[in-house]
Amino acid sequence: MAAEHATAGVAEHLRESPAGPGVAVEIVEGALLAVVAVLTAWSAYQSALWDSRSAASYSESATLRFSAQAADTQAGQQMLYDATAFNAWLAAHDDGNDALASFLERRFRTEYRPAFQAWLATDPFHNPLAPPGPGTMPEYRNASAEHAKALDAQATAALNAGNGSREIADDYVRAMVFLAVVLFLTALSQRFRFPRVRLGIICLAFGALAFSVYVLATVDTAVSASAV
């Protein structure tokens, strides 16, 4: 639709131009070149900004993923300590060594003790339906494991943000490709001496330009950090 309006406008200008159709076509070609130059510069600028955002998001995702793995490793070590300390306490309890059992109980991690007390409240030595250990109790918490899970979710979100920024940058590159087509058609039209032929090629250029403008109008716009 935009290309048809542009074509009609150019044709009307050709009929009314006192200087002849050749001059009018050259004016349209010059206007096309100016518009394409501005849009190409804008597209390149936006593509660079979105590429920068994408790289920053990927870097943040990698950092968060490394931190998540470190927290998950720490959580695994703490769970192993909890299980080892509990097994030692259970062995001391079975042997009737109350002093050792009391000593080991004091060595339990702070966040493990509520689960241990809740497990004892189920009367596990007489209740066959009691949970097998404190680690299976709802009260059992491991802050490192929860922190690792949160970091992993943040890393995934940052990765998705990086992918989204990359797609937007690709959209701007796609617009630049069609703007390059406009430049090619405009330069090609100047190789012909017949105004009607030149006008037909310019109409094709207007079609490519209309699509480029549509792409640029439907993608997000980034703002430079220095401009914020």
Question: Which short descriptors sum up this protein?
Answer:
228 residues, mainly alpha, 6 helices, rod-shaped
Question: What would your notes on this structure say?
Answer:
With 228 residues, the protein is mainly α. It has one domain. It is built from six helices and no strands. Helix 2 runs parallel beside helix 6. The protein is rod-shaped. The relative contact order is 0.16.
Question: Which helices and strands occur, and which strands form pairs?
Answer:
Layout: H1 2-16, H2 21-94, H3 98-106, H4 113-120, H5 143-189, H6 195-218
Category from helices, strands and their pairing: mainly alpha
Number of strands: 0
First CA to last CA: what distance? 37 Å
Task: Write down the oligomeric state.
Answer: single chain
Share in β-strands:
under 5%
Give the ordered list of helices and strands: HHHHHH
Dominant shape: rod-shaped
In short:
The chain has about 230 residues and is an all-alpha fold. The protein has one domain. The chain contains 6 helices and no strands.
